[in-house]
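2 proteins. here.
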Amino acid sequence: MTPPRQLHIKSYGCQMNVYDAQRMVDTLAGEGFVETANADEADLVILNTCHIREKASEKVYSELGRLRVMKDDAARQGRDVKIAVAGCVAQAEGEEIVRRAPTVDVVVGPQSYHHLPHLLKQAKAEGRALETEFPVDDKFGFLPPPKPEAIRSRGISAFVTVQEGCDKFCTFCVVPYTRGAEVSRPVTRIIEDVTRLADNGVREITLIGQNVNAYHGEGPDGRSWPLGKLLERLAAIPGVLRLRYSTSHPRDVEDSLIEAHRDLPALMPFVHLPVQSGSDRILAAMNRKHTADDYRRVIDRLRAVRQDIAFSSDFIVGFPSESREDFSATLALVMQIGYAAAYSFKYSPRPGTPAADMQEMVPAAEMDERLERLQNLIDSQQSAFNKAAIGTTVDVLFERAGRNPGQIVGRTAYLQPAHVMASSDIVGKILPVRVDSLERYSLLGELAARDARPLVSAFSQTPIGA
């Protein structure tokens, strides 16, 4: 028998790339590939790239330089190693990758990775394969389902893509150009995916999309279903204990999603809702299509139906022409909302986006100072949120063994890691934990009785607009 070929995938960036990497593994399993964590052992190495963060493409070229050395060493040993670049950098810079990195055999965009078996054959025959056009066919109709043993090996939590692309065209963002227009998968296909995962031990499902709450997939009744209705249907699937979704846009938080947070115990009270800035002038320059008050009202609506709900967000500091007054408005918004976590970054231009041509750049030193102030504020809020759990009892979905002998690790409704000493048979179960202390961002405690005092969000409060 021919031994299996080894596949190594290194993913950068977003949750969508984690999901895409798993689907690449499933696709290439039919070609005789098995996944390895060691790139040096691999017959095929795929860099699954992200174009969102600063210097994303340069990180890819740096990694390709290291892989070129590895590929040359393997060739001297008689091994033929192939290298592929996939994802958003591949989509945005396909021809440039071909020019700068001749060691690359395959370049494939995020909408075309279902063609990987064909592209590998093409590269073998022709020396190189490039596919970065948006295909007419929907890749989800061609991707093979993961095998049961693959699902079980990936743990009790899983991502499921329900929507791709974005029609918002924020001036700083490359997603509309690398992922294309908004497309939503049919409800029946999503139900099939989630049922398969639940049947094989997955207990927590996170629905993902570049703009996930713009979901409008065709339902079994022939009508367009919003995200809230989809969540309601998925919550009824046996074995699904927790539901989440990410990433959302404030403009697309509609009534059925609010009602889902009110009515579905399986839907976790933790929402990632990027705002980017607290200044209306900067939000307009970003083409975000909402104001700071619009954002506050969305927060109010969610808090009105779930008093224990908590939020995370994204912020860009130093967007072109951002004044000190604009930045102060961002700090004020953070103070008003109160976040359990947030991601914040200095603005960096992305080639091909409208913001890249804006001239009024904020000095680098000023950006550094603003980012430090914002992150200090966010860190203080996250610390307060975590400290509020001490002495309370929280429900934890246990995921895996910890680093220490006898330790089991899980996550709370707010994605806080929680550690207890217990037997491994609690993996996959939701159990109450009495929180005794913190270790950095992790909660430490013991399994507790269900009548212990519940956790109340550190930021439960009267709605801002009241």
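next one coming up
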Amino acid sequence: MIDIEIRKAADLEITEAYLYYEEQQNGLGERFLDSLEIYFERIKKYPEHYQIKRSPYREALISKFPFLIIYQFTGNKIIVFSVFNTNRDWVKKPK
């Protein structure tokens, strides 16, 4: 079984996105979380499927929302470092 750890910075980004989407439309934040959970499950099932952009980090682009999951896969553990909003300045993208 592969474990997934969401770092504090990523958790804060998720919370921020959820609150933003809920403010825009009731229930949209929940849809964002549902999409995110689907991608977390995909990453857990196929951790090496997503491309390494900058070693050792992989990136999974969420199709319905402008977010990129940046993670590392080692052994039986996935560490999510960021859930980056691609509408933000790319200079701020975690490296």
